[in-house]
Records
---
Amino acid sequence: MMKLVLILLVLFVAYNSKEQQQNNSETIINNVDSLAKYSYLIFGYNVLKHTSEGDSINFIIGTCFFVQDNDITFLVSAKHVLTGWNTDSSKKTIPYPDTLCIRLYDSQGNIIFVPIRIKRIKDTIKGGYGYSDPDVFVYKCEEVKNYKINSIKAFYNQNKDKYLRSISVYGYPFHESINHQNIEKFSNQKPILTEGIMISALSDKVLINRLNKTFLDTLNYHIKTNVSVSRQGYSGSPVFTKNKQNNQWLFYGIFSMEDKDYLGASIVKPNIVIQKIKERIHTTY
């Protein structure tokens, strides 16, 4: 009888251990490449003029990600990507596309481009500079409800962990060879990894220069990155960092834009992004 009890106890512990491992499997990822699936390509374009030599176009490319709350899906990206409001100049980008497309996969694994109509958003949006108005926009995305998407919600981290300094970002850098006439090239474009280091002295409050004035930025982290490729297209990417104490990846904000002051990039802090997401969820129900 005692032997049977011990066997059952071992099986019970093994089952619970496996269940716990499954619950944590999304955030405990040893290979950084597994984070790539959370970054989605988003793009659009305006034809500025038609000529005999070809069309002159204004091409927009960025990155976005998704958060699922119950049965509702929210698309999240940089404000300047989803709305055309430039938080670097505090002005609307004109012209800007009325429709953006997100690259997804259908149930058979085929690549599809899902259109998101943003005309009403871009025509009514108002904002400010990125140091006072977060470069974040959250959109209730009913257009993707019939498709499988990867949500970053499991990676939420509300704590300010000062010892987390290395960040990883997957984004879609712009390539001059891709335009509206050879859009099929997007089918083969893969997200590219950028890694960066936060400078401890710049972690919480950063002095930045805008319009020949100095401002204190408390909304963004400022980082050094390890790549020299164009960062146009990384805007809106989810940023991750690994807590090496428990080997868990944590959501650490949104890649905003190139940082000319510190020769790196700025990312909107995770607590700011999560608050924006919660506010949008609250207004949905």
---
Amino acid sequence: MNKDKLPNYIAKHLNRLTFPVIIKFDDKYPFMHYADNEKELGKVFVKVLEDRLDDWFYEDKIPEDQIPLTIEQIEKLPECYKKDALEKQEHYIKRQREVEENNRIYKLAHEAVAEKSGEKAWECIQSQSDGEYGYYEIIPIEKLRI
């Protein structure tokens, strides 16, 4: 893996790793992978991403019936309706950012699998790591207690 192209949090993590490592995923059915080096680690993340691509990633959009009034339209409303309309507008803007990020990761996930890119796969998996089944650990073999 090219550490110069990785996001800082990944590059820092790799600098602290001592290979070989075990990659442990917490899932409905927990499993582990072994990697001797950074290249093998990238292959593990691509494989995991391939297995979970359809479960974890989707093309997102906001239904047209949820698009709020524009600011210009809100300004023309009676005062009693403006606060509610502005709150809906703020919610929509927040949701729009979420949709953009979901779609960026969706596209990146498909690129990662097509290109067999460990770096891209790692970023996609990292985006899911706070979910119920996305948590993982990278454990150097030397730190395992037997």
